[in-house]
Amino acid sequence: MPTQQEIQLLNETLFEQLDTPGMQKQAIDAVNDFTRTKMREDGFYRRIMPPLTITNDELDRQVDTDKPVKIVDKEPDSPAAVSLPFSTLPINFYIRGPRYRVMFDRIVSPRAVKDVDELRTYVMDIRQVLSDNMIKDMLAEEDGKFMAAINAVLPTAGAPAVGSGEVQYEEIYGGITRETLVDALKIMPRTPSHFEVETCLVNNLTIKELLKFGRDEMGGDFSQDIIKNGWAETNFLNCRWIVTIKTGLVPTDSLFMFASPKFIGKNYELEPTTMYIRREAYMLEYFAYETTGGSFGHTNGLARVDFK
Amino acid sequence: MAAPDLPFEHAVDIKKGWFDMASLDYSAKLGTVGYTLPRGRVVHLEHVAGKEVFLPGVRATDVAIFLLNGANDADVANDGTTASGKFVQQAISPSGKLSGVVATGGYEIDSTEFDSTRTYVAGDLLTAHLGASSSDAATGGVLTNASVTQFVTPVVGVVSSGKHTNHNGVSTLSFWSVWLPGAVPG
Fold first, then answer.
1. Closest residue, chain A, to B72 (C-alpha)
2. Is residue A90, in this structure, part of any structural domain at all?
3. Which domain range does residue B124 map to?
4. Which domain, by its residues, includes A108?
5. What pLDDT digit, counting tens, does each position of A127-166 carry?
6. Is the preceding omega at residue A76 within 30 degrees of 0, hence cis?
7. Which of A94, A303, B132, B161 has the most crowded Cβ, counting Cβ within 10 A?
8. What is the C-alpha separation between A23 and A5, in angstroms, rounded?
9. B22 interfaces chain A, CB cutoff of 8 Å
10. Are A11 and A107 in the same domain?
11. Nearest residue in chain B measured CA to CA from A143
């Protein structure tokens, strides 16, 4: 935690960089370091599907648009092997590999405008103030798009998913118990892909149901630890558990399950989070932006349970 | 396979007034429209089920928005199923939002989306008809000077240099954006 003197020094340094012609880039870099770290820590989309940096050379040019597009190959299905008697030849199948497209758009924060003389009166770390609200907005937008895509794949409890033909969104009655949790983990392996759940996503209210587990349900000292210290992100049921406070996106008593990202799709980062800062006379303006693209190429690695 | 679309086949060029950080543009998702809305069409903002959406054309007092993106643009949509319903992908991005410039801004616009059978002269008032069903594909949000009565029909623009063939060989109409509310829908 920097001291107040250090914070004022940081603010002065930022102003000096903004005042010096050609130094805007350095001021931007100073904020960028912080921005990227927060983004990785806080957005659950990025923790479930870590962003992959993509360069111009890796984009796939299209005839009908000059906008960035990436085409990703999918593992093809193949006919099953069969047993045959002697003197019989195998059937032919022509190789056709499916592909899917990842398209990109930009996420921008609102553009803030402020008179620099009013900023001089702050004694907090101004770089953090400048970026915090914007990061929150961008994280919410990223996570919101991610959840909207999941809800599009798994729109209704009990309905078979388009990709697998299996029910991947179920309602399980009996509340959150050791039995119902284990039943939830059976949904994904039931699909033809047989994936196992790698990551579980719940909100901060749902996770508290697990605090109620006794020693007989949770297992020995682990039960004692969480009742004493609360839930910390940990492996449980051989899954990584992510807890979010975004209850508007992840409803209470719902559990979202994900296979390894390599079985789900791609999350590309074409332009990393960048803070644009410009000072004109005494007016300062700034906003953050990023260009990302993501698609689920295969949905058998997604599952959801609503505990009733 | 659908015929490819050229980036300039349906488009608006903003000849004056954009791009600038202070430009008046607006973004929203598209409402229920029974056809693929191309770039350049005129839309208005409407609240449907509590959400802001764009719909083609203008009602009496709607402010026109000239679309910079089409409904099928690569930064708008990435449809994920085949015609028979087979899964290809589910887009996480783009989000489905389209963007356009708002008629109250000071723009001179060159648009491919107008009734090219009409004659246009400088000063003609333009409107854009409503229409979101599949039968409206040719007219929904398309600019026209037909039957436009000042203070009765909502006006979305005034013709500047008029109809011409642009450098891409596409017929376009140049006009200034305005907002003059009417008494009846466009």
1. A65
2. no
3. 12-180
4. 4-72+97-146+270-296
5. 666 677 787 788 889 999 999 999 999 999 999 998 888 9
6. no
7. A303
8. 23
9. no
10. yes
11. B92
